[in-house]
Amino acid sequence: MKTVLVINASPNPSDSYSRMLTERFVGLWKRHNPEDTFVFRELGNTDIPHVNQHWVKAAFTPEQARGAEDQQAIAFSDVLVKELQGADVIVLGSPMHNLSVPSTLKAYIDQVIRMGITTSLAPGTPGSPYIGLLKNKKAYLLLVQGGYGFGKGEMYEHMDFQQPYLKAILQMLGVTDVTTVKMNHTTMSKELRLDSYTDAQTQGGCRS
Prior knowledge:
By secondary structure, the protein is α/β, with parallel strands linked by helices. The protein has helices spanning 17-32, 53-59, 68-73, 75-86, 103-112, 163-173, 190-200, and strands spanning 3-8, 37-42, 89-95, 119-121, 130-132, 138-144, 177-183. 35% of the residues lie in helices and 19% in strands.
């Protein structure tokens, strides 16, 4: 039996294609894995605290030396980290905002990057100076883009800071088994939008 962590980053509570993709994913997963457990983390409509000086001090203070203020400063981070540590499968649904990810998702990422807990430093190692500490996890990125042309070899590939960033963050955390499902054209004509949604349903973990 596995635990599946489903993260939604869209600020749109309805008519969100990234939420449609996560809902479809959950439905299909439940059909094939009825004994598995789901944990849902809402980011798009939640005030995710930004990292501040109190957080930094607490995070870099040894646990046994943290006072009450330190513990309070990273209490929410501890909750998010525990969710990640307990998940066997991570499902992230996110739109592209200004070529990258929504600000709430970035704030979430800042909360879960914890030195010595979710990642560690190994300067001079090929590819990345980070060694992730979250092992044996599978991730699905369900990504939505309002326009088009951000795919490999396409005209705006160099402007895609959504998928490469998220994959780099997952690798930093130790999650290297990543499947990406992408949908485009969500701000364009209905025909293009529906064609892209249909295509997304045939990709990766969204297949029936």
